[in-house]
Batch of 4 targets.
Target 1
Amino acid sequence: MTWLILIGIAALASLLLIIRSAPKSSEKSRKSAYRSEDFLFSPEERVFFLALKQAVGEDYEIFGKIPVTELISARYEGAGSGARKTLERVANQCFDFLLCSKTDLSVACALELYEHPVSGKGPAPPADPLRAICDAAGLPLVRIEAGPFYDSEEIKQTIASVVRKDPLYLVESDGRREPRISSIEDIEFDP
């Protein structure tokens, strides 16, 4: 009789172990179906981010990995099929970094890191559609060669040469344009 009790307890314990291990294996398979990245930026991008942060200081907010289509869209009613196709070619790309004004988060410029071609031989690279799109949209695009280190002062000068000083406000052809006064000395007062 004691043998039957011991066999029953052993069977119950085995059944309990099987039941407890089943959810763990399915939970483990659910966890292994996905993985998260530990870092937003690659090691090269992190090095550039630190140099960029030092270069722009407290002047701008820096954002990274922003999809192109979050900033640029075609005016479908006025855009030809060529413009739409060109935008579709870059729709899956992201700007590596964006500089935005600290006061209103208006976009000052987009930055991209690029790899320098190894040799000058061979066919010329195709025209860059992203550059053409950014130029047409009025978005300054700064391209900086990826490397093991960056000169913060050089980055600062490059950005200063292309960043627009005022926020970009596109005025439609039927919209109102406000006059601008560049200097108080230019104003003439009638006596």
Note: Strands lie at 60-67, 94-101, 107-114, 141-145.
Target 2
Amino acid sequence: MISIINDAPENVAAFNATGEITKEDFENLVIPHVKTKVEEFGELNYLLNLDTDLGNFTAGAWLQDAFLGIKNITKWNRAAIVTDKEGVQNFTDIFSVVMPGEFKSFPKENLYNALYWCQNGNEVEE
């Protein structure tokens, strides 16, 4: 299931993924929310907090399909993937080469830093 992270910065479309993730989650929640943000801000700052096992993604290539679907309807600016799964971090790094905008992976303990980076392009100094 995908849910909106309600306390994210106003210019960030932020989502939490838990349990099983389906194409319908993406079509019914993510795309409409992303469209609203792009219409309001003219660009997309996107965060996906993966709080689920990769085995819970239906159709195996869900992440790739999701990003490609969003690519066709938006203007990417920054996108953060928050996960401790190394495979997803590697995918994000590879994906950043072929997509417009900036893509970055963050470990789960850095969710706040990822939200801050999505909002303004800077990381919190520690």
Note: Residues 2-120 form one domain.
Target 3
Amino acid sequence: MRILITNDDGINAPGLKVLEGIASEIAGETGEVWTVAPAFEQSGVAHKISYTHPMMIAKMGERRYAAEGSPADCVLAGLYDVMTETRPDLVLSGVNRGNNAAENALYSGTLGGAMEAALQGLPAIALSQYLGPQTFHADDPFEAAAVHGAATVRALLDHGQWDSADYRLFYNVNFPPLPASRVRGLRVGAQGYRRDASFGVEPHTAPSGRRFLWIKGGAQHLPTAPGTDAALNLEGYISVTPMRADLTAHDSLTPLREALE
């Protein structure tokens, strides 16, 4: 199996090292793991593509490249510049430092990479490691992902739905904020919503007198509705959420037609 991996934390991020191990286990001795990751951190860029300016790409080692762009850019670079002879069989994005559950999924560059792969007609999985009191300062905050990652990916490859729709399925996986030994298993859940935890801004004044704004996230320990991604993670489960890039509110089509047409 040929696997392309990327992330949004950057080419030197520890989570990418974890993903390299997961991908190597899935690819097997006869497979290949190719890395095309951002040269610098690209957290929060979602599905951004560098449409208005070029990006530099540099070979860092065998099957390892850094691109000055977003995760979606890196997937495009991997498909149309790095791996032109044979496309990958699978694209993995992550392992993100911090969860991409609930509303975080909408901002996530990690999911942006997986989404672009799906739009390009490839199976794709995004993987993220929830952080919390038991993992944030641990010697290995990615332990749950490292220990359970390959089995989770393999379970999806063997038993997940892999369609060929125009907006084809991809998967969002979040590992709970626990040591690997305390992970309770895997559960499938919808994307949740954290109430009263939206992003905002925090103003600061520089020594020069200029005013700057830092984007500030909401509390991450708030559970979402029962059975949804963040709630499952906080209960100790690995959450798996099937996703599509189609943004249509299908439940509103019929009543809107009746009202407007």
Note: The chain has a mean pLDDT of 97.
Target 4
Amino acid sequence: MSMTAVQARDITRADRPTARLHRDAEINAWHGLLEALDGTDWQRRTVCEEWDVADIVGHLCGQAEDVIRPWSFPLRDRRAKQVYPDLPLLDAHMMVQADEHRGTAPAELRARFERLWAKATRTISRNPGLFRRMNVKVDGMPGLNKLNLGYIQDILLARDLWMHRDDVCQALGREFDAGPYAEAVIAQVMLDLEDGPFWQGTPVVLVLSGQGGGTYRLGRGEPIATVQTDAVGYMRTLSGRDDQPVVELLEGDRAGAEAVASCRMPF
């Protein structure tokens, strides 16, 4: 873990080749995880409401399909509005992704994930710059009204694969291996945290410990506190998966620890 505090807003956005390394590493890790699933593992409930392990895999298959066939996205949006009218559109869209793969036999679901993500990765790598710069209106991600496709495919897909792999490991009671690029993936989260509207300005030094750990400065001005929490655990907190993080005040004002514990952002 780096002990030199990095200003989060100054972190460099991962470029296209680096993003592919992150995504490929996650797909490879999922390969090992899916091979290890057995019997009732697929039906274990997860922290993602309404979803078991198989549903998460189905949602991820749906994400890959949306990359391969971009026209599937508006079609799913239309169905999502009909089937889940009370949900934010993005949440409803993801529910439809999982619904469409529900009931698939585990062996086929495993093979489908491998096949779809191999093709999706090739598609992302070949997408022309003009396509990648297209802005997409995102309903259901407060503070992120429009995102360009390059950012969605390079940054958010790897992040989602990574976080959902932790969801599955949590559900199964297995140790989560955050992977060789965990620190880089988390650094991109920290960049988004401060660069977007999510951090409310309290200047702190945040020490993230454990896998993927690093030390970051958030907010402008002299830090009022130095606080510490587990890196992977804090990603669960930021994404709304864990509302009771263990945040240790190392020095300074307790308001700094409270700011860290209460912050949330879309993943």
Note: The beta strands are 6-7, 135-137, 146-148, 204-209, 214-218, 225-230, 248-252.
